[in-house]
Specification:
With 194 residues, this protein is α+β, with helices and mostly antiparallel strands. It contains 4 helices and 9 strands, in the order βαββαββαβαβββ. The protein starts with 5 loop residues before the first strand and ends in a 6-residue tail after the last strand.
């Protein structure tokens, strides 16, 4: 019996090592303050533009071509990571994230470009609007704290900046000790004169 092989795919902007280190330090400081969180490995820190999920292998070429066409005229842009927050709310948090201050609009436009290109080859649009963020951890259960989960200091803290100059099509292989991410294809964005 023939079965189609699949890959679990997503499209993302990968962070430089210097910013990963800064966010790892934030994570270390938060670990003692916020118990009951399944922390994301620093090697997995990224800004997701589009999650494709389980995708038949034979669609990979069409995805790569659609992304290449959509991104060939897209310019690179600066991104500043700053502030911590939670989804969906402070009363029932499920995700702890680091936010984007500068570059939020550019990331939203980039995500829309990716979304539109992949919709043309059969991938449905996301039901919710794009919110630029980097997931630091997921709550296993609602946190038990006497005070606010995040102080004003953490909500405003700056973590660093980088030039978003590449978009990556990523493969996620789920393993017992966590996912393994592999770059399937990288797409360089046009350099800007700044």
């Amino acid at each position: 019996m023939f079965t189609s092989e699949t890959m679990r795919l997503f499209v993302a902007v990968i962070l430089p090592d210097s910013l990963r280190e800064a966010l790892l330090e934030v994570r270390r400081r938060m670990e003692s303050r916020v118990p009951g969180v399944r922390w994301v490995s620093p090697g997995h820190f990224h800004l997701t533009l589009k999650f494709l999920g389980e995708t038949p292998d034979e669609q990979a070429g069409r995805i790569q071509e659609a992304l290449a066409q959509a991104l060939k005229t897209t310019a690179s842009f600066p991104v500043e990571m700053a502030g911590l927050g939670v989804f969906p709310s402070g009363k029932s948090p499920r995700v702890l994230w680091a936010g984007v201050r500068e570059g939020r609009d550019a990331l939203t436009r980039l995500a829309e470009r990716v979304e539109g290109a992949l919709e043309l080859i059969g991938f449905p649009r996301e039901a919710r609007s794009f919110e630029a963020h980097l997931t630091l951890g997921r709550f296993k259960s609602p946190p038990r704290t006497n005070g606010p989960l995040l102080t004003a200091e953490w909500e405003q803290k700056q973590f660093g900046a980088f030039q978003a100059d590449q978009v990556s099509l990523m493969r996620s292989d789920l393993k017992p000790d966590g996912p393994v991410y592999t770059v399937v294809q990288g797409y360089l964005l046009k350099k800007t004169n700044t």
